[in-house]
């Protein structure tokens, strides 16, 4: 290729009006490349134009008569990938446009313009640049090679990489000329751009890298927030193309240097049954307790690769207390099992009318809320919202009830209920006493009837006493 390059350049230098400069052009594979060719437009003669590629023959040419011709490889099935816009000829611009450039289009091109009394020739070096990823969609944890290919390669060029518009540079990156080799993980996901700088000209090409594995959550140690008593889902979703085997959930013990599995909460259950293969390995806790906070690990085997993702469940609750000096006041404290991401707390009073319409009161800032006097106005639902750098993290609610000991107020409704309760209690006591007396009488008669002789004596004695009393009255 270098020998052909020098031959073409040498021929151009020997021709009349030839330009000595070789023009460098970079084009990304699949895009449109414009090869410049400009000369003096003052000639009154119709020019003859021919574009050729070194060792490949004619690309496109136009005779003075206006007839156009294309090389065989540049006009497949009647479609012309290479052409010169006629609208620019009056300005002396005979640049060649190549659509959907391919890797094999790279090389040395020559433009020859014959105006009858002057021949101008330009030499253009077209370099096709592209970014390739191997394997095209790597699996998390496996090696991935990202290459910046240029055809023909410009010796002495410098190469730089950016990932998502930020320069990519890490001590673990193994670089040699135009490629790097990395372990596939979430940090490599995104748009990779290769910049090639050569003789003041810059070429660039881009490609998108997608890593297959656990896509949700996208990174380790993602925090999931939940309120005590609520239900929560711990996400663990694999790429849609992957169906993991040996799916495992574990709760990691706190305080150990090396994470070790612990006991899962009683309300923990996988969302997808193990009998049905699925890329979704998420799990749920039906009723979260404050003791359920901690780190959880989701794992699965994909193509003999063990993939894991750690996440942290942060549980929120509200503790209430009554200050000793103010019996009618209430103190609410918003507590989280981990506050490392929390930057701000807000309290808001939530009210529902008879139609169920929800409305909110003014917002109060702070981790704690002091209600100086519990009354009808501030009873009901209070919500504590906690925020991080990226916005709302979660919320937890507390129901404030109106109690006489706290409010210091006596209502007529309460007095009427008290009278009714006292009266009902008195009636029940009287009925109970009557039942007890009836039971005693019954038991006494029952004991007497067990001795017939004694009953006869008692009966006889009673008759004699009545007879003597009658006789005494007659006398």
From TrEMBL:
Residues 265-284 have a biased composition (Low complexity). GO terms for molecular function: MHC class II protein binding; protein tyrosine kinase binding. Residues 1-20 form the signal peptide. InterPro entries: Ig-like_dom, Ig-like_dom_sf, Ig-like_fold, Ig_sub, Ig_sub2, Ig_V-set. GO terms for biological process: interleukin-15-mediated signaling pathway; positive regulation of ERK1 and ERK2 cascade; T cell activation. Coiled coil: none annotated. Residues 20-125, 141-210, 217-308, 311-385 form the Ig-like domain. Pfam families: V-set. One of its GO terms (cellular component) is external side of plasma membrane. Residues 260-284 are annotated as: Disordered. The chain crosses the membrane at residues 419-439. Keywords: Membrane, Signal, Transmembrane, Transmembrane helix. PANTHER family: MICROFIBRIL-ASSOCIATED GLYCOPROTEIN 3, T-CELL SURFACE GLYCOPROTEIN CD4. This is Ig-like domain-containing protein. The gene is LOC127366798.
């Amino acid at each position: 290729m270098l020998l052909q390059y020098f031959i073409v350049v040498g021929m151009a230098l020997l021709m009349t009006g030839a330009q000595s400069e070789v023009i460098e052009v970079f084009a990304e594979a699949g895009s449109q490349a414009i090869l410049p060719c400009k000369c003096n437009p003052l000639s009154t003669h119709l020019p003859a134009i021919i574009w050729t590629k070194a060792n490949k023959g004619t690309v496109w040419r136009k005779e003075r008569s206006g007839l156009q011709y294309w090389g065989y490889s540049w006009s497949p099935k009647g479609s012309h990938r290479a052409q010169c816009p006629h609208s620019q000829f009056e300005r002396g611009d005979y640049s060649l446009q190549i659509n959907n450039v391919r890797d094999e289009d790279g090389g040395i091109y020559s433009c020859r313009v014959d105006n009858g009394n002057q021949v101008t020739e330009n030499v253009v070096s077209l370099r096709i640049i592209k970014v390739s990823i191997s394997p095209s969609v790597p699996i998390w944890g496996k090696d991935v090679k990202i290459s910046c290919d240029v055809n023909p390669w410009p010796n002495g060029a410098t190469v730089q990489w950016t990932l998502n518009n930020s320069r990519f540079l890490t001590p673990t990156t193994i670089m040699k000329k135009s490629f790097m080799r990395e372990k596939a993980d979430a940090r490599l996901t995104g748009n990779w751009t290769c910049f090639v700088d050569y003789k003041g000209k810059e070429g660039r090409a881009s490609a998108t890298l997608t890593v297959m594995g656990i896509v949700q959550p996208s990174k380790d140690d993602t925090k999931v927030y939940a309120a005590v008593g609520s239900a929560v889902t711990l996400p663990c979703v694999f790429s849609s193309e992957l169906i993991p085997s040996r799916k495992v959930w574990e709760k990691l013990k706190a305080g150990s240097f090396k994470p070790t599995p612990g006991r899962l909460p009683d309300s923990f259950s996988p969302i997808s049954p193990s009998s049905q293969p699925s890329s979704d390995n998420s799990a749920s806790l039906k009723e979260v307790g404050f003791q359920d906070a901690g780190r959880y690990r989701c794992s699965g085997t994909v193509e003999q690769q063990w993939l894991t993702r750690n996440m942290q469940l942060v549980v929120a609750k509200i503790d209430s207390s009554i200050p000793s000096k103010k019996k009618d006041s209430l103190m609410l404290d918003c507590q989280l099992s981990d506050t490392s991401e929390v930057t701000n707390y807000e309290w808001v009073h939530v009210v529902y009318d008879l139609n169920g319409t929800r409305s909110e009161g003014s917002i109060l800032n702070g981790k704690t809320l002091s209600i100086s006097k519990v009354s009808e106005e501030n009873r009901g639902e209070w919500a504590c919202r906690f925020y991080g750098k990226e916005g709302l993290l979660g919320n937890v609610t507390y129901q404030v009830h109106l109690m006489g000991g706290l409010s210091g107020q006596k209502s007529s409704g309460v007095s009427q209920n008290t009278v009714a309760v006292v009266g009902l209690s008195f009636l029940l006591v009287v009925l109970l006493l009557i039942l007890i007396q009836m039971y005693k009488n019954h038991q006494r008669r029952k004991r007497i009837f067990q001795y017939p002789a004694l009953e006869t004596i008692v009966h006889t004695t009673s008759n004699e006493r009545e007879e003597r009393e009658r006789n005494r009255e007659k006398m």
